[in-house]
Amino acid sequence: MEIFEALDATECVYSAAQLAGVDPKTVRRYARMRDMGLAVDAPIVRPKMIDPFMPKIEEWVERSQGRVRADKLHERLQMLGFTGDERSTRRAVAKAKERWNAGHRRTYRPWITEPGLWCQFDWGWGPKVPGPGGEKPRETLLFCAWLAWSRYRVVIPTWDRTLPTLISCIDSMLRAMGGAPTYALTDNEKTVTIERVAGVAVRHPQIVAAGRHYGLQVHTCVPFDPESKGGSEATVRIAKADLVPTDANLRSEYGSFAELRGACAIFCQQVNNRAHRETGKAPSSMLDIERKRLHQLPEAPHTLALGESRQVLRDQTVRFGSVRYSTPPGLVGSEAWVRADGDELVVVADLSTLAVRPDWMQGPAGLAEVARHPLSMPGRPVIDLSHYPDHPQNMDGSPRPPKPKPVNEQEKAFLELGPGAKSWLIEASAAGTTRIRVKMAAAVELAALVSAAEVDIALGLAATAGRFDEGDLMSIVQHRRHGARPADLVVADEAHSVQPGTSAWAGFGRKPT
User: Fold this and answer.
1) What one-character-per-residue DSSP string does 325-339 give?
2) CA 338, CA 346: separation in Å to the nearest integer?
3) Whole-structure pTM value
4) In the predicted model, what is the mean pLDDT of residues 7-27?
5) Helix (H), strand (E) at residue 98
6) Are strands 344-350 and 335-341 parallel, antiparallel or unpaired?
């Protein structure tokens, strides 16, 4: 500002330059800029080699609607005589695209919804988990729903995205929310929209029937425009970032589909109980307010597309095509729906009708896929051994070892010595040992003299070595007191026998030669 003050005081360029200590050309340039109304602190724009080509660049950017690549434009500019480098072209194209986007940028109206009016749902790819019956890992899907006003989220894992699975997930979603909103917004999939006529979506008849059953009207967004249902898209993105194992979340692989279902239930509990960034309140607390505006759900689920109705028999199986298929425990006597999905049989049950909640059940109650088996032929039942955890056989078919249960004080005192006492009792019983009760009482008496821990270790070694005679336990205890290690265990077999052999009997009954 000293230049302007000197110029106003002297009204002479040369005199103002002497007072300000600058060149007269500088005073003249600043005076010209002030007279033209330009900012004197603006950067000086010097002419560039690409300036004559800027109208053509803007024309190409406008024709491609801001999608043209700078390297392709550089090739065309070289054909027109441009001799600059590609870096200059990239800067010019970036500025042209920025000006084009400023005039064509899409704006969004904030979605202000009222309680009980809208919900959204969408699908996302989930992690790979072992298939039904311990098969090789296969892809899963995540059904992600979002209640617009309260921001309440529901995530349900599935094996497929067929229409019966979709209706089952909608039932579980609504029961987790505690009611049905007026509208539901989703994507244009074949399970929802069968075709489009003049740009108008034609709804799937069974989705319409399911919507009438729950008092819900299903709408679809603009085709190929996920931004028109951003709430469910954000729910899918957040769920995949937390549930799908990656290097970013340090989550390990899932061992079963039930483990994935439990992880989804924990995820929903976490996101619904923490304060939302937009509202500043937890979605679960806002859901209590929104439930007053939701429609009441019917007691029975919509079962039009779930398959054929069956009753779970006493052996935890359902019959389909004269073949028995197993189901998880806790469903005996309840109603289930079965359907063939390709080469597999899907079993769906309404978990909200069960009197006792099973231990394997995760997440909200409602329609859920409880079993999936490969289709079989009559006479070949399909039984998943994991559905019978209390069966007396192991998974490989071998018998399970018995579990000792004391019935009197003497047995209780012996089993309280530790796991070695239990192993000794199981192995001694299997070996047909006599006078077991007497030997158990002797072990209890020896524990009072030595220690319970020492006797328990000795009993475990005796069970491993197969030594169940009268003095074997005392011998092992004394042997350990002399510093012997459990690793020096010797199992009694023919390799350590004191029998001299039968070579002396080799010539018995033969005539001498």
Assistant:
1) EE--TT-TTSEEEEE
2) 6
3) 0.62
4) 84
5) helix 86-104
6) antiparallel
Model confidence pLDDT, tens digit, residues 210-237: 999 999 999 888 766 666 666 678 888 8
Cβ atoms 118, 182 nearer than 8 A = yes
Per-residue tokens: 357: 């909640």
pLDDT for 167 beyond 80: yes
Residue 421: both structure tokens together: 């006492």
Tell how strand 193-197 and strand 141-147 pair up: unpaired
Cα–Cα dist 269/273, whole Å = 6
Burial (CB < 10 A; 0-12, 13-18, 19+), residue 497, is exposed
Going from the C-alpha of 198 to that of each of 185, 201, 202, 428, the distances in angstroms are: 20, 9, 10, 82
Compute how many other C-beta atoms are within 10 angstroms of the C-beta atom of residue 380: 8
The residue count of the chain comes to 513
Compute the average pLDDT of residues 11-25. 85
pLDDT at position 394 is 67
CA 67 to chain centre: 36
pLDDT above 90 (res 154): yes
Nearby residues of 233 by Cβ (< 8 Å), 6 or more positions away: 122, 226, 227
